[in-house]
Amino acid sequence: MIRPVLIGMRSHPTSEQLQSTACSLIMTLSADEEAADIIGQAGGVQDILSTMRQFNSQPGICATCCGALWSLSVNESNARIVTEEKGLQDVCNAMETHADSSELIESACSAIWSLSLEDDNVDVLSDVAITLIIESMEKHVTRVKVVKSALMALASIVTCGEECAYRVLSPSNDVTGLKVITNAVNQHKNEVDIAESFCTLLLELTEYDDVVNELKSPSLRIKQIAMNIRKQFRSNEEISGATEVILSKFGVNAQRAPQRPPSARSRPRSAVRNR
Question: Which InterPro entries does the record associate with it (predicted)?
Fold first, then answer.
């Protein structure tokens, strides 16, 4: 089934409907790791990027392409192809062009999450993606799926190094990243996915001692937010474990033995399977 889809894309490059349908099929098929590998070997990654560039003014098809890139790029070989083809910049361009489309922003953040595992993407992630993600979170603060995808993308980017962590704290001179993030989290206090994603981001940020000192700023209220999350979701083992680790960095005595959940870098494949 994969090859006929790709042949159709190459035979009708200007058909928006065909390209959109084909990209949706590829996104669905690539949730299977073996299929994702076959698609990559057959040139499917380049086909998706070609479609995205051909229809860069259409938010719907760009969103579908970003979704396909997210799913495909969980595969290491495909992520390398996207990186070599400068696909991360295409994703960032789409975010900037279609900043009002929550559907696109959600898919783009998910694609960035997968592509953040490639070391050659660090410069674009640090210089461009972080700012776009935080701006998008502020613009679409009421959208649970956007906030969740943005938090997970940021969490994974933070693992790239301390410079990226500081970029999240202060993406520009007039924006405090953590204030935007905590505002979004506070708007979704009852959403378990938001609590879990926020804790994942805090876990990665608190890996850097100097960043922990920044997080202790009273104006951010990070410790209080983490304590509230621990109390509200105490029956959730993953969130409870994460908050214990986070709060231990703030000098709070653990209510149970802190056990760090998996890193954000280890989660994209399971997220694709469970979407």
Answer: ARM-like, ARM-type_fold, ARM_LRRK2, Armadillo
Neighbours of 253 (CB within 10 A): 7
The Cα 88–Cα 128 span in angstroms is 10
Splitting the chain (275 residues) into consecutive groups of 10 residues, what average pLDDT does each group show? 91 94 94 93 97 97 96 94 98 98 97 95 97 97 97 96 94 83 96 96 95 92 95 93 93 67 59 50
What is the token pair recorded at 89?
């910049």
pTM of the predicted model as reported, rounded to 2 decimal places: 0.92
Give me the torsion for CA of 75, 271, 159, 43, rounded to 10°.
20
Q: What DSSP state is assigned to residue 266?
A: G
Query: What is the Cα–Cα distance from 98 to 94, expressed in whole angstroms?
Result: 6
CA angle 64, 69, 75 (to 5 degrees): 145
Map tokens 């993030």 to a residue.
181
Q: State how far the Cα of 221 lies from the Cα of 235, in Å rounded to an integer.
A: 23
Token readout for 156 is 């994974």
SS3 175: strand
CA distances from 230 to 198, 239, 240, 242 (A): 12, 7, 6, 9
Q: How far apart are CA 67 and CA 51, in angstroms?
A: 13
Alpha-carbon torsion angle 191, 194, 196, 201, nearest 10: -160
Encoding tokens for residue 35?
Answer: 């299929």
Tally the C-alpha atoms within 13 A of residue 69's C-alpha that lie toward its C-beta: 39
Q: Output the CA–CA distances (angstroms, integers) from residue 156 to 16, 112, 115, 194, in the order listed.
A: 33, 9, 9, 15
